[in-house]
Amino acid sequence: MTDPKRVAILISGSGSNMVALAESMTGDHPARPVLVLSNDPGAKGLDRARAIGIPVAAVDHRPFGKDRAAFEAALMDRLAEARPDILCLAGFMRVLTPGFTEAWAGRMLNIHPSLLPNYRGLHTHARALEAGDAEAGCTVHEVTAELDGGPILGQARVPVLPDDTADTLAARVLVQEHALYPAVLRRFAAGDRTPVLLP
Questions:
Q1: Which residues are annotated as a binding site?
Q2: Annotated binding-site residue numbers for (6R)-10-formyltetrahydrofolate
Q3: Catalytic residue among 61, 112, 125, 178
Q4: N or C: which end of the chain has fewer CB within 10 A?
Q5: Does 112 qualify as catalytic in the annotation?
Q6: pLDDT band of 65, cuts 50, 70, 90
């Protein structure tokens, strides 16, 4: 059996998708978490990662101002120490430059709370409701220089209910995120890029 792929998870907030990923990487899983990295030293997800025994690091983006290249160079330094094979963006709220995405081409995943290519960017649930969509969901995709535009590796769908608000829809989609992202990572780490489709 080959050694498990080393996975670094990038977060900005509470880290619920990070926890779902980390808790899935046990037993015969083809990957293992080696680092949780945040752009916010106060992110609650860092405490959650520590609690389950994953090394953590933070690179505060704020001192870098608009110098995204310098911020990303600092990120790369932390990643170099952990030597990951795969990066998983899990609520990482910084837009990455083409230089960074090219360095990790074919090795970086992201989860987005819409059925891409619909509603790239922010406020996805409100936009789905405003459009009168019958269903919403989430997508895991490879990260490229195009925002939320890389090859799709998995999707999960939920119905939009008549009394939904953006918050209630987001909560139901999040349940699916926690199922979809681990399923895609398991397949991806094993070298299989066939999309995962959950009902």
A1: 15-17, 68, 110
A2: 68, 110
A3: 112
A4: N
A5: yes
A6: very high
pLDDT at 40 > cutoff 70 = yes
For domain 5-190, give the fold.
Rossmann fold (3.40.50)
Total-model pTM: 0.96
Cβ atoms of 110 and 120 closer than 8 Å: no
pLDDT of residue 1: 59
Residues in the chain: 199
pLDDT digits (tens, 9 = 90+) for 81-118: 999 999 999 999 999 999 999 999 999 999 999 999 99
The DSSP secondary structure of the chain, one letter per residue, reads -PPPEEEEEEESSS-HHHHHHHHHS-TT-SEEEEEEEES-TT-HHHHHHHHTT--EEE--SGGGTT-HHHHHHHHHHHHHHH--SEEEESS--SPPPHHHHHHTTTSEEEEESS-TTSS-SS-HHHHHHHTT-SEEEEEEEE--SSTT-SPEEEEEEEEPPTT--HHHHHHHHHHHHHHHHHHHHHHHHTT--PPEEE-
Q: What is the overall mean pLDDT for the chain?
A: 97
Of 6, 145, 183, residue with least CA distance to 83: 6
Rounded to a whole number of angstroms, the CA Rg of the chain reads 16
| Vertex 91: Cα angle to 139 and 9 (nearest 5) | 95
Q: What is the mean pLDDT of residues 160-175?
A: 98
CA distances from 44 to 98, 175, 176 (A): 28, 19, 21
